[in-house]
């Protein structure tokens, strides 16, 4: 019995020591965060750590639990936030299917406002049908019979604008069904795109050939209607590509190619020069539609932003989807892209971002697309990936999609990496840069003073940054650790200048 008591006592001591060591760990993290110029409140955190240390040293079990709770609540506050960036989120048809009244939309957008969302991508057209009353396409039945408050898109736009959010309706361009043919395929089965053997192989997706003039005119009419009839801020092109795999051998595609080049592409040897030329033929039709959108829709509304969800990395999208967003950006057909960098780990995301940045020779703004469905049970991974996007100096992030945003993930980013509202960069990048620089200078003074650094040196850093507009880093001198942090953060300023073609 005595042995058991002794073992219990030893276990308690060890556990207590381990927990108290966590407090010391938080103190070290606080110092590191200050040197890194993180957005952090050292006074509040220090007070909380002192209180936690006292509680954890208590013999009372309830006190120790309170101490643990303090440490847990502090965790999100150690995640840095960025004051200037664009935050986007997709709102797909699954979410819209849960709206029955204006109040349903308002409650969701209130939640988005709390995490500082700037751009909404509502899925308004898919598979030949719309969520809004259209004179061009068929409205989905649920919005005829279940939605109660008029035009759902008009209501969505009104509620978004009242909260300072932009609405960029998402259009599924060439996709026309998943697992089953969509409405448009059922109406026009001859429009279906197929593989070399005339089938669809094992694919679950259904696409329509972009070479069909009637189909293109239909899409053009849908988009023109959207831009003309609704107070939208942008248009987001999704599935602006071919189906993955060896697709593009419908009779329409083959007949047009034979008419132009007197050869049937089905006869080409895979990998041959002729086969590569046929791939270019398919890319050209995707390119042409993006060009039409940019040139024609901006004539209706000049401040409209045209964007696209694109495959990542670019090399894969180019080869497998016949999608070339680098060509679009080089020729000025797109305002920004959201590479679908859906990766389940941060190292994989890091690789994808680097590949897309390397391909981005025209420096079109990249808003990294993150797949929320991968993090339903891992809010910390989502947070880590948003932090990686910031580390790589991309100007924005796009979350796919609201339907997969768990309560835990939402709470985590609300209290952590998105706890500060950010100034969007996509409309007024010069103002966003100014806000970012002012914030950086404030962090230098606040964090440096808490660390006990010389005021004169801190002021010299601020003066150098303000005089150069952030174009020149500070020289490494008395506080190289802090100076390195300053220069690292100024890299974002340089990237924003590059993305938005702003001269210093």
Contiguous low-pLDDT stretches (5 residues minimum) are 2-15
Name the CATH superfamily assignment of the largest domain: Glycosidases
Q: Termini separation (Å)?
A: 77 Å
Overall CATH architecture of the largest domain: Alpha-Beta Barrel
Radius of gyration using CA atoms only:
27 Å
- Quickly give the structural class: alpha/beta
The description of the largest β-sheet is: 11 strands, mixed
Domains (count): 3
CATH topology descriptor of the largest domain: TIM Barrel
Number of contiguous helices: 19
| Proportion of helical residues | 40-55%
Taken as a percent bin, the fraction of beta residues is 5-15%
Shape, per Cα inertia axes? globular
CATH class of the largest domain: Alpha Beta
Quaternary structure type: single chain
């Amino acid at each position: 019995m005595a042995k058991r008591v002794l073992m219990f006592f030893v276990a308690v001591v060890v556990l207590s020591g381990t927990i108290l060591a966590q407090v010391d760990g938080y103190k070290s993290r606080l110092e590191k965060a200050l040197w890194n110029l993180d957005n952090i409140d050292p006074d509040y955190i220090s007070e909380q750590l002192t209180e936690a240390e006292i509680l954890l040293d208590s013999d009372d079990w309830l006190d120790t639990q309170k101490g643990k709770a303090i440490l847990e609540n502090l965790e999100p506050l150690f995640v840095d936030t960025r004051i200037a960036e664009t935050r986007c989120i997709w709102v797909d048809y699954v979410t819209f299917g849960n709206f029955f009244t204006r109040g349903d939309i308002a409650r969701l957008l209130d939640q988005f406002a709390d995490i500082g969302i700037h751009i909404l991508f509502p899925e308004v057209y898919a598979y030949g049908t719309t969520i809004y009353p259209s004179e061009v396409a068929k409205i989905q039945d649920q919005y005829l019979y279940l939605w109660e408050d008029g035009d759902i898109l008009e209501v969505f736009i009104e509620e978004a604008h009242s909260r300072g959010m932009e609405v960029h309706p998402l259009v599924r361009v060439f996709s026309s069904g998943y697992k089953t043919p969509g409405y448009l395929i059922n109406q026009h089965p001859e429009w279906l795109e197929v593989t070399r053997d005339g089938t669809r192989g094992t694919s679950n997706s259904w696409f329509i050939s972009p070479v069909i003039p009637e189909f293109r005119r239909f899409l053009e009419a849908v988009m023109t209607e959207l831009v003309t009839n609704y107070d939208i801020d942008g248009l987001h092109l999704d599935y602006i590509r071919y189906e993955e795999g060896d697709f593009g051998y419908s009779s329409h595609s083959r007949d047009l190619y034979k008419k132009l080049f007197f050869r049937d592409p089905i006869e080409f040897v895979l990998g041959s020069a002729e086969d590569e030329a046929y791939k270019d033929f398919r890319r050209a039709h995707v390119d042409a539609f993006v060009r039409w959108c940019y040139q024609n829709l901006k004539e209706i509304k000049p401040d409209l932003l045209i964007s696209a969800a694109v495959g990542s990395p670019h090399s894969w999208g180019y080869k497998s989807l016949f999608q070339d967003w680098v060509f679009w950006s080089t020729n000025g057909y797109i305002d920004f892209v959201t590479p679908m960098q859906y990766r389940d780990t941060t190292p994989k995301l890091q690789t994808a971002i680097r590949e897309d940045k390397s391909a981005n020779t025209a420096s079109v703004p990249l808003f990294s697309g993150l797949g929320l469905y991968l993090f339903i049970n891992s809010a910390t991974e989502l947070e880590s990936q948003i932090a990686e996007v910031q580390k790589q100096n991309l100007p924005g992030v796009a979350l796919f999609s609201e339907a997969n945003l768990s309560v835990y993930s939402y709470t985590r980013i609300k209290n952590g990496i998105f706890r500060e509202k950010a100034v969007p960069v996509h409309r007024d990048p010069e103002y966003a840069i100014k806000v970012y620089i002012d914030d950086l200078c404030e962090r230098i003074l606040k964090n440096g003073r808490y660390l006990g650094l010389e005021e004169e040196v801190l002021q010299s850093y601020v003066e150098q940054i303000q005089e150069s507009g952030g174009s020149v880093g500070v020289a490494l001198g008395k506080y190289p650790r802090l100076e390195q942090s300053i220069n690292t953060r100024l890299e974002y300023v340089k990237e924003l200048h590059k993305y938005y073609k702003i001269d210093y």
